[in-house]
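Q: What structure does this chain adopt?
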Amino acid sequence: MTQVHNQGPVAASRITLAGLSAPAETAPAGWLALADPNGPIDLTRFFPDVEIRVEAASSTLSDALSVGEPSLVVLIEPPAGAGDLQRVAAWRALHVRSRAVLLSPHHAVEARLHALELGFDDALDLSSDPMELVGRLSIAGRRTANSTSGSNYGSDDRILVGAGIELDRRARAIRRGGKLLPLRPKEMALLELLAVNSGRAFSRAELLERLWHEVATHPRVVDVYVFWLRSKIERDPANPVHLLTVRGSGYLFDPPSDPDSPEGWRPDLPER
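A:
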């Protein structure tokens, strides 16, 4: 069952916000939700200015994901289950301009933590104050709207460093094909510096001064860390296309031109 802009009356048992809705300028169009149409929260009521497609079954959600790129995917548990989390996380890893949020009952702490581990942008307790639910969904939508304005297609916390690969500044790790790969502290610092300043070449001496703070070390230590990073973000580390060597200048980061490139890290989707 699919709903778009359900403007019907809300049952008394469902959450109401006394007319509060998300401002149009902070919530982009094109959300996709997996939710019980008669469940505890009516997204289309809360966000009347957003085009929201609501699916009631996992199969129709998968169909919608296969043919479109919603800016925000919202899973509400139930009917969303573990398979839906895996499927959306895998899809999210390949569509880094989109965002994903889980809403689950108060007791489902493990599900919310699992969603965050998989790469969801937020995971909320359905029993939270309705204003918080709307506010945090609005924030997720706003990050989606802003994500296409930057060269790396990422939010402040996430930077695209390869097709299907993100630097997650909050987790201090990279997300590749939907999986979290931890980084050494200096790997994190080096990749973050280069990615934030994409297109600019840094010499070894400058990188040593900025990241090693003039601590006595061999200049070639930078090359070692670059080698380690290439093994994690490049499809072919021997022929890098993003973390580049500039002869006579040092290293620079060239961001992916297509975040959804078929050459990216493509995780296996779970069976329906």
